Amino acid sequence: MGLFAFSQFSLKIFLLHITLFSTLSFSGDPSIYQEIHVSYTTVSPLSVPQQVIAVNGKFPGPVINVTTNNNVVVNVFNQLDEELLITWPGVQMRRDSWQDGVLGTNCPIPPKWNWTYEFQVKDQIGSFFYFPSTNFQRSSGGFGPFVINNREVIPIPFAQPDGEIFIMIGDWYTQNHTALRTALDGGKDLGIPDGVLINGKGPYQYNDTLVPNKLPFETITVDPGKTYRIRVHNVGVSTSLNFRIQNHNLLLAETEGYYTTQANFTSFDIHAGQSYSFLLSTDQNASTDYYIVASARFVNESLWQKVTGVAVLHYTNSKGTVTGPLPPPPDDFYNKGASMNQARSIRQNTSASGARPNPQGSYRYGSINITDTYLLNVTAPVKINGTTRAAINGISFLKPDVPFLLADKHQLRGIYKLDFPSKPMNRTPVVDRSIINATYKGFIEIVFQNNDTTVQNFHLDGYSFFVVGMDYGDWTENSRNSYNKWDAISRSTTQVFPGGWTAILVSLDNVGSWNLRSENLDRWYLGQETYLRILNPEDSKDNDTGVPDNVLYCGPLKHLQKEQKSSASALGHSILFTLLLGVLCVIFTAS
Ligand SMILES: *[C@@H]1O[C@H](CO)[C@@H](O)[C@H](O)[C@H]1NC(C)=O
Ligand SMILES: *[C@@H]1O[C@H](CO)[C@@H](O)[C@H](O)[C@H]1NC(C)=O
Ligand SMILES: *[C@@H]1O[C@H](CO)[C@@H](O)[C@H](O)[C@H]1NC(C)=O
Ligand SMILES: *[C@@H]1O[C@H](CO)[C@@H](O)[C@H](O)[C@H]1NC(C)=O
Ligand SMILES: *[C@@H]1O[C@H](CO)[C@@H](O)[C@H](O)[C@H]1NC(C)=O
Ligand SMILES: *[C@@H]1O[C@H](CO)[C@@H](O)[C@H](O)[C@H]1NC(C)=O
Ligand SMILES: *[C@@H]1O[C@H](CO)[C@@H](O)[C@H](O)[C@H]1NC(C)=O
Ligand SMILES: *[C@@H]1O[C@H](CO)[C@@H](O)[C@H](O)[C@H]1NC(C)=O
Ligand SMILES: *[C@@H]1O[C@H](CO)[C@@H](O)[C@H](O)[C@H]1NC(C)=O
Ligand SMILES: *[C@@H]1O[C@H](CO)[C@@H](O)[C@H](O)[C@H]1NC(C)=O
Ligand SMILES: *[C@@H]1O[C@H](CO)[C@@H](O)[C@H](O)[C@H]1NC(C)=O
Ligand SMILES: *[C@@H]1O[C@H](CO)[C@@H](O)[C@H](O)[C@H]1NC(C)=O
């Protein structure tokens, strides 16, 4: 009782702490401080009680809301029973892969420890989400939205929306991440997910047979006659989802940091790891509430019916609850290319300003010569030495045990190889730690050829890239004739359809070691990732650039790591500190 009262109190003070700090600005750009406590909590989104990963007690976690050029300081407290790293995909830390939060850039935060990330969101805007990159934890939660707002002086290419709505959709298993990991380690397929969650909640009971239990469902309340910006993220394991809102258009406006030409869709395919902003006009008569649906795509509908998320859009003047069938999914039988055509139709708004006042289309990527081509053959899982693994160009990545640039700094040898093949190797796949020796200031083409039978999604940390081409069949040099050289969308996660290819162009202007990976968690876990090592030859005499003071050591460098007091006592200090600040703040406001 007393403890409860205290924690309520300290929570308020904690909020004061954040507000107080976020209004302070140090030399140059303002800093935003945030503490995130990652812990288990028990919920029953699909009626089965299960341990999920909460952030500051919330599932999904809170939004991290920053503005272009802010310095972001996030103190992450690991209250799980296993190692943790939080990653910020799409956030392009300049020359700072030391903050990226994947095993090739950071040693994991041990249980009960905390570690502070510090990075600048330089020249960026957009909708992203953070999540735990280690141990398959994303399948149990730990994710939340990460928004980078335009600076006030830079107009957004649409009227200021009347409100913002965050929607996190994703396939969901009632088994936790440790159980799913065990299944993958045992060579099993994860099988059909148990459902789709929308903002951490199970489906509205739209059909008593398909949803036998009344579950807590997500309700999004809106006023009539307004325009909302909805930011939708597929945070799931691997299922491609079709997102739609009954009787409403989705006006596409932004994807992962770039404004798009605006086009209306009645439904939109959002693949694992992808983020989109839509503008939603609440222009209906509210005779009832409306369904919000996220349903599994490209699957046998009768087997996958339960893999459907259903939430409710409620107008404040609504005259009744939702009834009747869900709005139908796209019809692939009569329109086989629909999903790919939709993806190809996403175009960059070349005249809008992004993070800077100049138009997004002022960077003429289509006239820059390509310096290197990487043709990556993404293949279905196979057994390597008795274990199920997945490979790219015959290499299944061995999980790093020490960050690569840290290994360089300490002159460790044999930690990784720089020989990742730039073409498919028609040889028996191997497990290896082979990374791409990419050339600083190069302008490279990466072609993902998906030889697997499921939709794949590839993400590159530290960069955004132009998605210039996508088709079925095998990529050939002639495929370049079909590239979009003018208004291809720039983003950081792209789908690759099974039996097809996707081509991206990347300008390698960001020094570091950057993770290139499958966003399908199972394939990533089985080894479909590598890194691009991009060094500025002029930096080589000074490898220390950017190594943070609080760098953690692990693996072969573990002996360099000092003990940390458990985060429980660090938390104690933090509460004391915030109390003190709170008191000061109260005194200050009172006077
Ligand atoms: C995960 O599930 C397994 C098997 O059901 C259980 O033994 C384990 O305690 C669970 N772990 C967490 C962190 O919930
Ligand atoms: C994020 O911050 C911007 C301004 O800094 C503010 O206008 C907006 O309401 C905030 N959004 C959320 C969800 O906190
Ligand atoms: C852990 O948190 C405390 C504040 O609670 C902070 O002073 C300390 O720097 C943090 N440790 C690291 C390694 O970031
Ligand atoms: C509920 O779903 C079942 C199975 O798809 C279907 O047969 C039934 O007609 C649905 N019920 C209603 C009321 O729509
Ligand atoms: C999109 O649909 C809305 C109605 O929902 C309409 O007002 C708007 O003009 C349409 N925009 C475009 C670009 O088609
Ligand atoms: C509201 O819209 C629905 C669907 O567009 C229509 O069927 C219904 O008649 C309308 N109701 C009123 C009161 O206008
Ligand atoms: C690009 O390559 C072409 C032909 O190889 C060459 O003529 C041209 O000068 C190059 N352009 C630039 C900007 O390097
Ligand atoms: C910098 O890293 C290179 C390997 O990339 C290594 O050979 C060199 O010794 C390092 N220099 C210093 C000063 O650490
Ligand atoms: C990709 O690998 C598969 C399996 O080894 C092979 O059958 C296929 O020909 C390869 N595709 C390309 C484009 O090399
Ligand atoms: C299988 O394991 C052995 C012994 O660990 C190793 O030498 C060999 O390279 C491995 N083979 C592959 C294909 O990874
Ligand atoms: C990496 O590439 C650079 C040129 O960009 C080259 O000088 C260097 O030798 C390469 N390193 C290895 C190990 O291949
Ligand atoms: C994989 O590659 C082989 C050889 O080119 C081809 O026969 C097969 O159809 C491909 N499978 C897919 C799903 O692309």
UniProtKB/TrEMBL annotation:
<feature type="compositionally biased region" description="Polar residues">
    <location>
        <begin position="344"/>
        <end position="353"/>
    </location>
</feature>
<feature type="transmembrane region" description="Helical">
    <location>
        <begin position="570"/>
        <end position="590"/>
    </location>
</feature>
<keyword id="KW-0325">Glycoprotein</keyword>
<feature type="signal peptide">
    <location>
        <begin position="1"/>
        <end position="25"/>
    </location>
</feature>
<dbReference type="InterPro" id="IPR008972">
    <property type="entry name" value="Cupredoxin"/>
</dbReference>
<keyword id="KW-0472">Membrane</keyword>
<dbReference type="InterPro" id="IPR011707">
    <property type="entry name" value="Cu-oxidase-like_N"/>
</dbReference>
<protein>
    <recommendedName>
        <fullName>Monocopper oxidase-like protein SKS1</fullName>
    </recommendedName>
</protein>
<feature type="domain" description="Plastocyanin-like">
    <location>
        <begin position="38"/>
        <end position="152"/>
    </location>
</feature>
<dbReference type="Pfam" id="PF07731">
    <property type="entry name" value="Cu-oxidase_2"/>
</dbReference>
<keyword id="KW-1003">Cell membrane</keyword>
<dbReference type="GO" id="GO:0005886">
    <property type="term" value="C:plasma membrane"/>
</dbReference>
<dbReference type="Pfam" id="PF07732">
    <property type="entry name" value="Cu-oxidase_3"/>
</dbReference>
<keyword id="KW-0449">Lipoprotein</keyword>
<feature type="domain" description="Plastocyanin-like">
    <location>
        <begin position="164"/>
        <end position="317"/>
    </location>
</feature>
<keyword id="KW-0186">Copper</keyword>
<dbReference type="GO" id="GO:0098552">
    <property type="term" value="C:side of membrane"/>
</dbReference>
<keyword id="KW-0812">Transmembrane</keyword>
<keyword id="KW-0479">Metal-binding</keyword>
<feature type="domain" description="Plastocyanin-like">
    <location>
        <begin position="407"/>
        <end position="538"/>
    </location>
</feature>
<dbReference type="InterPro" id="IPR045087">
    <property type="entry name" value="Cu-oxidase_fam"/>
</dbReference>
<feature type="region of interest" description="Disordered">
    <location>
        <begin position="344"/>
        <end position="363"/>
    </location>
</feature>
<dbReference type="InterPro" id="IPR001117">
    <property type="entry name" value="Cu-oxidase_2nd"/>
</dbReference>
<dbReference type="Pfam" id="PF00394">
    <property type="entry name" value="Cu-oxidase"/>
</dbReference>
<comment type="similarity">
    <text>Belongs to the multicopper oxidase family.</text>
</comment>
<keyword id="KW-0336">GPI-anchor</keyword>
<dbReference type="GO" id="GO:0005507">
    <property type="term" value="F:copper ion binding"/>
</dbReference>
<keyword id="KW-1133">Transmembrane helix</keyword>
<dbReference type="InterPro" id="IPR011706">
    <property type="entry name" value="Cu-oxidase_C"/>
</dbReference>
<keyword id="KW-0732">Signal</keyword>
<dbReference type="GO" id="GO:0016491">
    <property type="term" value="F:oxidoreductase activity"/>
</dbReference>
